[in-house]
Amino acid sequence: PRSVAEPRLLLCRLQDLAMAERSGAAQKLNGHGEAAGSGEENGHRNKRFKSDAGEDDAEEQNKKSPKRKIVLLMAYSGKGYHGMQRNVGSSQFKTIEDDLVSALVQSGCIPENHGEDMKKMSFQRCARTDKGVSAAGQIVSLKVRLIDDILEKINNHLPSHIRILGLKRVTGGFNSKNKCDARTYSYMLPTFAFAHKDHDVQEEVYRLDRETLEKVNKLLACYKGTHNFHNFTSQKGPKDPSAKRYIMEMYCGEPFVRENVEFAVIKVKGQSFMMHQIRKMIGLVIAVVKGYASESIIERSWGEEKVDVPKAPGLGLVLERVHFEKYNRRFGNDGLHEPLEWTEEEEKIAVFKEQYIYPTIINTEREEKSMANWLNTLSIHDFNSSAAEMQANSKNSK
């Protein structure tokens, strides 16, 4: 009868439900009474630790933050480095860019793969400084994530003798090398380099007289204008159009005494310079002032004949600043971009030079005597003969 069947059916269903609950509870509990299995299997996601979530959020934010084209104002002491430009695959020759790229990656400005392939961040340096050469106003352009406290974070991962002193946004197509109108270098040297070869000179006692300084400046002024500088670099022939360079100014400033030795600073501004060009320009002037070569050799060096031009040491050379006059006229006051001038950073630049660049030049000169040793090699150069004459003389002597 229906009245008897219904209570039995209800009882069976209740027993089935009870068994199902006990079975489910057993699956949820392991032998120690703890919840077994992952939270996701139970329909719930695992709770994440706050620190992990924070790191992931920061990483996610970095990925989302758009990359922008910027320029960085750099200062560095080049001693111990094989120049500015990175040589991928030559880890034994450490460069300034090796340390810079490492700091950019570690600070989160660029992803790691951009550090391995610098084209991905559109990286370009304004000037490729040689081995041992320092800079007070180097400019590099690149695309980065504009993270908070970006300069502080980059500098935290750089050695103290490399600093990022400023940052400015630039146009998307900006290239620091191609947009640069001119570069100014300085060369700091002990003034005994100008003492005549026939005079017995004590390095710490020597002081540059007015007449010699005037002669130095007269010779340096000869370089102004456009000339063929094929003799002032390697791997450039006299017919190579790129050997012609335009020099705007070149002069030697008033001497000053540091650590009992008198020094002077030569400044040169030009559109662009070839490898070793400035050091050879200065080396030839020193050879003339010391009496090893006649003044006419400077003009002769611009001709097609090969001339023996000595190369002064790299120690005293400093990239002072780079100029972007055309860019500043076009974009500097467009309301979106700033002119690439660094008047607010000049004090920081001066402090860096006094703290890292000048002491390195002075102390290295005192300890290693790079200028004094180089001066001793001037006597082995043949300043009077052209390459053709030297070959002819060699044949005649044979």
Automatic annotation (TrEMBL):
SUPFAM superfamilies: Pseudouridine synthase. Residues 23-65 are annotated as: Disordered. Its EC number is 5.4.99.12. GO terms for molecular function: RNA binding; tRNA pseudouridine(38-40) synthase activity. InterPro entries: PsdUridine_synth_cat_dom_sf (IPR020103), PsdUridine_synth_TruA (IPR001406), PsdUridine_synth_TruA_a/b_dom (IPR020097), PsdUridine_synth_TruA_C (IPR020095), PUS1/PUS2-like (IPR041708), TruA/RsuA/RluB/E/F_N (IPR020094). It catalyses: a uridine in mRNA = a pseudouridine in mRNA; a uridine in tRNA = a pseudouridine in tRNA; uridine(38/39/40) in tRNA = pseudouridine(38/39/40) in tRNA. It holds the Pfam family PseudoU_synth_1. Substrate binds at Y185. Residues 223-325 form the Pseudouridine synthase I TruA alpha/beta domain. Keywords: Isomerase, mRNA processing, Nucleus, tRNA processing. It is an enzyme of class 5 (isomerase). The keyword Transmembrane helix does not apply. Residues 41-53 have a biased composition (Basic and acidic residues). GO terms for cellular component: nucleus. The active site is at D130 (nucleophile). It comes from the Eukaryota. Its main location: nucleus. It is found in: Nucleus. The keyword Nucleus applies. Belongs to the tRNA pseudouridine synthase TruA family. Pseudouridylate synthase that catalyzes pseudouridylation of tRNAs and mRNAs. Acts on positions 27/28 in the anticodon stem and also positions 34 and 36 in the anticodon of an intron containing tRNA. Also catalyzes pseudouridylation of mRNAs: mediates pseudouridylation of mRNAs with the consensus sequence 5'-UGUAG-3'. Acts as a regulator of pre-mRNA splicing by mediating pseudouridylation of pre-mRNAs at locations associated with alternatively spliced regions. Pseudouridylation of pre-mRNAs near splice sites directly regulates mRNA splicing and mRNA 3'-end processing. Monomer. Forms a complex with RARG and the SRA1 RNA in the nucleus. This is Pseudouridylate synthase 1 homolog. The gene is Pus1.
